[in-house]
Fold this sequence. Notes:
Elements: E1 3-6, E2 9-11, E3 16-18, E4 20-24, E5 27-32, E6 39-42, E7 47-50, E8 52-57, E9 62-63, E10 66-67, H1 72-81, E11 84-91, H2 99-109, E12 116-122, H3 128-140, E13 145-149, H4 160-173, E14 176-180, H5 184-196, H6 202-207, H7 211-228, E15 232-234, H8 240-251, E16 256-258, H9 262-266, H10 277-281, H11 292-304, H12 319-322, H13 342-351, H14 358-372, E17 390-400, E18 419-429, E19 432-436, E20 439-440, H15 456-459, H16 466-469
Parallel strand pairs: 1-6, 2-7, 8-11, 11-12, 12-13, 13-14, 14-15, 15-16
Antiparallel strand pairs: 1-4, 2-3, 4-5, 7-17, 9-10, 17-18, 18-19, 19-20
Helix pairs in contact: 3-4, 4-7, 7-8
GO biological process, one term: pyrimidine-containing compound metabolic process
Keywords: Hydrolase, Metal-binding, Zinc
GO cellular component, one term: cytosol
Amino acid sequence: xxxxxxxxxxxxxxxxxxxxxxxxxxxxxxxxxxxxxxxxxxxxxxxxxxxxxxxxxxxxxxxxxxxxxxxxxxxxxxxxxxxxxxxxxxxxxxxxxxxxxxxxxxxxxxxxxxxxxxxxxxxxxxxxxxxxxxxxxxxxxxxxxxxxxxxxxxxxxxxxxxxxxxxxxxxxxxxxxxxxxxxxxxxxxxxxxxxxxxxxxxxxxxxxxxxxxxxxxxxxxxxxxxxxxxxxxxxxxxxxxxxxxxxxxxxxxxxxxxxxxxxxxxxxxxxxxxxxxxxxxxxxxxxxxxxxxxxxxxxxxxxxxxxxxxxxxxxxxxxxxxxxxxxxxxxxxxxxxxxxxxxxxxxxxxxxxxxxxxxxxxxxxxxxxxxxxxxxxxxxxxxxxxxxxxxxxxxxxxxxxxxxxxxxxxxxxxxxxxxxxxxxxxxxxxxxxxxxxxxxxxxxxxxxxxxxxxxxxxxxxxxxxxxxxxxxxxxxxxxxxxxx
Length: 484
Ligand code: DUC
Ligand code: ZN
Ligand code: ZN
Ligand code: ZN
């Protein structure tokens, strides 16, 4: 049974053109004028784009004494409702736990997914077992990205020696390391100082994680990756200092990627000064929201190409969960939602304002991500043979974002009240219409795991520290007798 998407304008990362698109067996089989099929989807007045890929989500994640409230059911419904057709979640072994055991738990949770998904594996501790399991994860489990937390001291954080060992292992395996870049030692010290001084409200969360904490860690991770001879992906880049480190590394020939979140692009630190405790606590995430100068830097990075991807770090907690931190901001579960809102918010605040072009929009929400995560051209492309994961985006359709109408399981939305344009008329997942004019038609369990191969780019990583790459053996004469 063939489906034809008719009369739309196809928008890819590099082209905009009028054509129909024919789908069969879940794949794009033909692109051209006047196509016919058994079923027709009218795309008049719409842009036909590769579905969004969110490279950074945490669904039903055990974290800070609780679980993030959106699971693979509500989370992937939210994704589809907003035009995102694939998510990449983080498999987090408890420190001491086997990666393969943790993966069984994640495989099990993900059986509920409404859209396709993949995993990143987190390196939350270091040992010979972890070193060995990384090979199995890459070669047998289809996961070629390893996440490292430089913050969350005492739980998820890894130290520089562990990071260097893991990055070097990634280099051998053709895998890409990811970092959450914040200096965890400094954060812990600042948190304690703030608490001692009686600053226990949600605003203190932001005070304890200034931009310098992120800039320092980003730069450190970049240099360590360079010494290990491996590219690096920096998650949730939120400030100029981190962006500057990424820009400089790229200029020096390193493959370093930066990922701003839609939250950091569109919400600022004033949210933490709202008088209402719940309002501010609901927006507690790491890194925290920043000021306008940092936001401008992130937008400039998307336009110029020094930052490549827009994600959500979707990690949603209910108001009741946020209240675990009344009296101690360190206990407020870190995280915000955004899966349903990423594309409409970026369209409204990016494309409609002229900050980025439509083609850049497709690049940063889908195509660049597919390329960096080695999913391209199966995902992120409108090409014959690619999966028919599509969003038919209606630039005239608008709504006001509200928790009352969202798919997410939580009781609020950090974008509440924002008027957005650019909503899906249709979302398609492997050719199946999963959203039609705001109505979800997807099925729990429709989503499939997408395995990812190791990277060709990794073995070609160039070190700018050439002096370290080949230690020379020196044939010495005249070795003096020991001084003892
Ligand atoms: N930051 C968050 O805000 N939530 C999940 C993990 C993270 O690093
Ligand atoms: Zn993080
Ligand atoms: Zn408020
Ligand atoms: Zn995250």
